[in-house]
Each structure stands twice: as structure tokens, then as C-alpha cells.
Amino acid sequence: MDMPLNVEVYCVDGVCGRSKEVVMDRETEKVTHLVVKEKESPNAELLVPVDLVTKTTPHEIQLRCAKDELAKLQSFLKTDIIEDEVPQYVVAPYLTLVAAPEPRWIAVQSEDIPPGELAVRQGARVEATDGRVGRLDEFLVDPVNERVSHLVMREGHLWGQRDVTIPVSQIDHLGEDAIYLKLNKQQVEALPSTPIAMR
Questions:
Q1: How far is CA 78 from its chain centroid?
Q2: What gap in Å lies between CA 78 and CA 83, rounded to an integer?
Q3: Which of 3, 105, 115, 198 is the most exposed place for a label (fewest CB within 10 A)?
Q4: Can you tell me the distance from the alpha carbon of 197 to that of 191, in angstroms, rounded to the nearest whole number?
Q5: Main-chain dihedrals φ then ψ at residue 52, nearest 5 degrees
Q6: Which residue spans within the chain are E strands per DSSP?
Q7: Higher pLDDT, 187 or 87
Q8: Termini Cα distance of the chain
């Protein structure tokens, strides 16, 4: 089963958004959620449990819920209001400028990822043991156990315009913005690939 990123997502009553990220359990590498950005206002990014996915292709994802049910799911982005002190310069005696902190409240958005899980987005760097080899295009997920079986990488000067399929067993670890492999560039080049035109 493909778990494509940046493709249209369909609810039972029509197109409802686009896939943005995949959320995985750090330990089991099992996909737990898909992040979907709503097509219509307020264009919220929502955490969609993977059990709502009924079908995927390289070009779309279908869900078993309606648009109004999707809109009720947990937001992927949370907003925290924090206090920030901004220096306010005042003129002190003898025409000296003095910084006097003035508190203000600002809104800061962050991803609301469940504990022990990691969100991976399309375009995340893929690093071999001897340097960068490309960027993540999508995941292949075993439909039986919902674990990632392969990642599909596009780009890289050695491969031109083709997708390279990398078994998840060859992933050393996942970082916040990169996927680190156990393989070097030459070993990655030898992996099977699928021409983009055939997908």
C-alpha cells in the first residue's frame, strides 16, 4: 500500500484535502496517523488515524469518513500563547538610552505529535552513511500490520528521474528532518527502482 505525500485526499463525499505528513511510532515504525490539510477554509491540518484510510494509490488517498467528520478530528498544529519581553528604549537622565523590557504576548504554532511518535514529511532528506542521496517521496506500508516496509526516494545526482525503493530494514534511524540509512551511496544506487513515468 502506498502512503503518498502531497496528494489529494478523498472523503466519502468528495475531495477533502491533501496529505502533508505521515506520523509513525518511533520504536515500531508503524504508521499511526496521516496529516491532512483541509481543502476548504479554515484549511486546518488534521491528525487522521490510519484506520480511516480505505485505499491508496500513488496519486490519491481515500478515507472512510465524510468531510464534516474529518473536520472534527484533532488538529495537528497547536497554538501556545507565550510571554515575550521586547526591549523598549527610554531616555534616562543625561540623554542616555536605557532598555526597559516591556512584556507582550505572542502566539506560537507547533506540531502536536503524540508522545513517542515522529512526523515525516515529503522532501525530508535521505542520508547515506557517506552523504545525502535524495529526498523522501512516499512510504510503502504493509496493509496487514500497518508498518512501513519501504521508503521511496526521488532525486539524487546518481539516479536522475527515477524512484529508488529502500527497505525499512536499511534505515538506521529517523531524525526530525532527515532519514539516515545503513547504506552508502553505492549500495543505494544498486537498489531496485521504478521509473517515474510508470507510476
A1: 16
A2: 16
A3: 115
A4: 18
A5: -85, -10
A6: 2-4, 8-11, 14-25, 31-38, 45-49, 53-57, 60-63, 77-92, 96-111, 117-121, 125-128, 131-141, 148-154, 162-167, 171-174, 178-181, 193-195
A7: 187
A8: 13
